[in-house]
UniProtKB/TrEMBL annotation:
Belongs to the BI1 family. One of its GO terms (cellular component) is membrane. Pfam families: Bax1-I (PF01027). One of its GO terms (biological process) is negative regulation of apoptotic signaling pathway. The chain crosses the membrane at residues 106-127, 139-157, 169-190, 196-214, 226-250, 256-277, 289-310. This is Transmembrane BAX inhibitor motif containing 1. Its main location: membrane. Residues 1-27 are annotated as: Disordered. It is found in: Membrane.
Length: 316
């Protein structure tokens, strides 16, 4: 390999190690007549390789996508890859060490995103001129929505920008700023105490869900169909709630919708957390650290917004 050649990808490295582990001696097709002096596999006539060159019979299945990207929630996608088993523990792509480094990288990026969002929400909550400005100029909020949507779709649907450094970090930073501004604008319509109460509850929920996902044997990654159905129910409930509240404000209906949304996105947080762990039915590739951080970040922000609808009251 020359110095200018790029390093192998995660899938290429696993295939190379599988070939080294199982050797380069596949079985011949059915009906093939072995020629004298040609190796055809263990237990077959011919010249066998030296001891230690064969470590297992047959072909090792290569890593295949477990499912196609699917629309699983309003503004949330999922791209899952099933990791191949049997990777050598001494190789450069050792499964445990790579997965642990991947998890640390995802949570480091997520911590920076949440710090930015919390700081912006605090500015909108404590600085009265900023609060009044965003309340009196809702057009800025709607102008930021296309930026949020475009950057989100680029990060989720386009593998090139999502994996290419530094464009993936730049797009993620723009997305974080946009969603933080939109969240701060929504927080401006609620009382300051309600905002910080929702922040505290969100932090407690996220910690509990994360610890639970790392300890439990329940596999949320195998419940994609159920989560999609819950998203449809939440979407229909949101449309009905918006129509009813546009004519008459019903406090219990507003709180019920907020509770349903918080529960659904808490399940999504558990789902995306287990995708990072890698020891469930489905998992994401260690190269997809941007997608992992993006998924968790959107889930946490959505939980906060729905909890805010429960704890807060609209300002006059």
């Amino acid at each position: 390999m020359s110095k200018s050649d790029p390093p192998p990808t995660y899938e290429e490295s696993r295939q190379q190690q599988q070939q080294q582990q199982h050797g380069n001696y596949p079985y011949p097709p059915y009906g093939f007549t072995a020629q004298p002096g040609v190796y055809t596999g263990p237990g077959q006539p011919g010249i066998h390789p030296q001891a230690g060159l064969w470590q297992g019979p047959g072909y090792c299945p290569s890593a295949m996508p477990s499912m196609m990207p699917s629309f699983i929630a309003p503004g949330i996608f999922s791209s899952n890859l099933r990791d191949a088993e049997g990777i050598s523990s001494t190789g450069i792509w050792d499964s445990m060490s790579v997965r642990h480094a991947f998890i640390r990288k995802v949570y480091l990026i997520l911590a920076v995103q949440l710090l930015i969002t919390t700081s912006i929400i605090a500015v909108f909550a404590f600085v009265e001129p900023v609060r009044l400005f965003v309340v009196q100029n809702p057009a800025i909020y709607w102008a930021s929505f296309p930026v949020y949507l475009v950057t989100y779709l680029m990060l989720v649907c386009c593998e090139g920008p999502r994996r290419r450094h530094p464009w993936n970090l730049i797009l993620l930073f723009i997305f974080t700023l946009t969603l933080s501004y939109m969240t701060g604008t929504i927080s401006s319509y609620f009382d300051t105490k309600a905002v910080f109460l929702a922040l505290g509850i969100t932090a407690i929920v996220c910690i509990i869900v994360t610890i639970f996902c790392f300890q439990t044997k329940v596999d949320f990654t195998s419940c994609t169909g159920l989560l999609c159905a819950l998203c449809v129910v939440l979407l229909v409930t949101g449309i009905i709630t918006s129509i009813v509240l546009s004519f008459q404000y019903v406090p219990w209906l507003h709180m019920l919708y907020g509770a349903c949304g918080a529960i659904v996105f808490t399940l999504f947080l558990a789902y995306h957390t287990q995708l990072l762990i890698g020891n469930r039915a489905n998992s994401i590739s260690p190269e997809e650290y941007i997608f992992g951080a993006l998924s968790l970040y959107v889930d946490i922000v959505q939980i906060f917004i729905f909890l805010l609808h429960i704890t807060g009251s609209s300002s006059e």
